[in-house]
């Protein structure tokens, strides 16, 4: 909000947004998704070091890039799910340090790409999100595993962590 007082002073009220995830979709649109689920453009000056998502994400209409904070548009479901997953990862310091990228498969399931450890974490849908992230964190912190033996971890199954050998 910006307005001029009767005495001529300019008053500006702002509400800063925090970027949660950087997204690159199939239409080569590149943007941040903010904490209020409003699309934020990339900066020409610098790049934030935050979680990155790509894969089978649909193109967004131009109206999404011109929306106001007061009238946010409803994002497609896959972007809402991606936002929920990214926000949960950002809340946890360990997971935030571990996960580098989220890849969206053509069946709308998620794969997490860690910075260290195995090459791929098959996450599936966000159903049971808290439980899956808890199991992943326990597996990485308490499991005595030789990471070089495994190529992937699968969290899709209830109460299980399934590893695939190389």
Describe the protein's architecture and organization.
The protein contains 3 helices and 11 strands; from the N terminus they run E-E-E-E-E-E-H-H-E-E-E-H-E-E. The chain has helices at 77-91, 93-98, 129-142; strands spanning 2-4, 10-12, 19-24, 30-34, 39-40, 52-55, 99-104, 110-114, 120-124, 150-154, 162-165. Strand 3 (19-24) and strand 4 (30-34) form a beta hairpin. The radius of gyration is 19 Å and the shape is elongated. The N and C termini lie far apart (56 Å).
List its traits.
166 residues, nine-stranded mixed β-sheet, two-stranded antiparallel sheet, 11 strands, 29% strand
Number of helical segments? 3
Alpha-carbon Rg, integer: 19 Å
**Strand line-up of the largest beta sheet:** 5-4-3-6-7-8-9-10-11
User: What string gives the helices and strands in order?
Assistant: EEEEEEHHEEEHEE
Low-confidence parts, pLDDT < 50 over ≥5 residues? none
Find the structural class using helix and strand composition.
alpha/beta
Percent range of helical residues: 10-25%
Strands, count: 11
Q: What is the multimeric organization of the chains shown? A: single chain
What general outline do the C-alpha atoms trace? Answer: elongated
Mean pLDDT: 88
Characterize the largest beta sheet: strand count, sense, and whether it forms a barrel. 9 strands, mixed
């Amino acid at each position: 909000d910006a307005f001029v007082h009767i005495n001529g002073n300019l008053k500006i009220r702002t509400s800063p947004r925090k970027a949660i995830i950087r997204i690159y979709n199939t239409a080569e649109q590149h943007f941040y998704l903010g904490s209020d689920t409003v699309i934020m453009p990339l900066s020409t000056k610098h790049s934030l070091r935050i979680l990155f998502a790509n894969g089978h994400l649909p193109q967004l209409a131009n109206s999404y890039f011109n929306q106001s904070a007061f009238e946010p548009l409803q994002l497609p479901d896959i972007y809402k799910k991606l936002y929920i997953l990214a926000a949960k990862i950002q809340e946890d310091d360990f997971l935030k340090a571990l996960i580098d990228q989220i890849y969206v498969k053509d069946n709308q399931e998620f794969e997490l790409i860690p910075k260290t450890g195995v090459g791929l974490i098959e996450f599936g849908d966000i159903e049971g999100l808290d439980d899956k992230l808890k199991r992943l964190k326990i597996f990485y912190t308490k499991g005595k595993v030789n990471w070089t033996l495994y190529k992937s971890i699968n969290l899709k199954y209830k109460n299980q962590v399934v590893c695939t050998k190389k």
